Amino acid sequence: MPARTRNLFTPGKLFRLSRSKLDLFIQCPLCFYLDRRLGVSRPSGPPFTLNNAVDALLKKEFDVYRSQGMPHPLMTAFGITAVPFKHPDLDTWRNNFKGVRFLHERTNLLVHGALDDLWVASDETLHVVDYKATCTEKEITLDDEWKQGYKRQMEIYQWLLRRNGFTVSDTGYFLYVNADKGRATFDCRLSFAVQIMPYTGGDSWVEGRLLDAHACLVSATAPMPSPDCLWCSYRSYRGETA
Predict the structure, then answer these.
(1) CA of residue 222 relative to chain centroid, distance
(2) pLDDT tens for residues 169-221?
(3) Is residue 148 part of a domain?
């Protein structure tokens, strides 16, 4: 497959950098460089169509209570004193191709990320909310190593919103829906158990990572790969070089 020729970084020009690509840099600088500078992306996985459907339905459901200025019953059940945040730009912030944006002037990177939801407390402090759908019999926690990316995701959203002038709590919420496989029959429906998990993070790392990512992009030579990057390990096994 030939290298991609669009959405490539050009030194000296404004460049759109999504929160997922910043996270790619954290995972592996070489994969990031290959993707954003040379147009060689990691292989993509299958689309999460069922997860996307759950995500869309949750948004519609919370929008009903948003329009009424009332808390969703789940928020009340989990003791969260807030209501879904109403804002004219909410649909834009949820759009994968737009999202919440901020131009980082030191690097000329237009950082953006599409969030799931925002809840607002009585003092107008915002809480970032991320929907997650899964199907597991294990206890759901945020301690798995691969879920550190979830935490960074939320922290980048907090950083973006603060740069747009909002007061944002360090505490966000992961709303997990877990499909029940124990039903006797399918009957063309899935049943879910719901869990709202608070997470207190911090966005102090974002600025430094943006500077590092920009330094990576402007470099004329590719960086070293992350030692635990499976994609780079495979490329090395195949004898491929950047």
Answers:
(1) 26
(2) 999 999 999 998 888 888 888 889 999 999 999 999 999 999 999 999 999 99
(3) yes
Q: Which amino acid is at 116?
A: D
Contact 129, 83 (CB under 8 A): no
Name the residue type at position 158.
Answer: Q
20 domain residue, yes or no: yes
Give the number of domains in the chain.
Answer: 1
**Nearest Cα to 179, choosing from 50, 58, 64?**
50
pLDDT in tens, 99-149: 999 999 999 999 999 999 999 999 999 999 999 999 988 888 888 887 899
Q: Which residues contact 94 (CB under 8 A, 6 or more apart)?
A: 59, 114, 115, 116
Q: Model pTM?
A: 0.92
Provide the domain limits for residue 163: 15-27+57-183+194-202
Asked if the structure places residue 126 within a domain, the reply is yes
CA 147, distance to chain mean position in Å, is 11
Round to whole Å and give the CA distance between 63 and 37.
Answer: 39
Cα–Cα distance, 118 to 66 (Å, whole number): 10
The pair of structure tokens assigned to 178 is: 């877990």
- 207 in a domain, yes or no? no
Please state whether beta strands 15-18 and 109-113 pair in parallel, antiparallel, or not at all (unpaired).
parallel
Going by the DSSP 8-state scheme, the letter that residue 133 receives in this structure is E
Tell me which amino acid residue 218 is. Answer: V
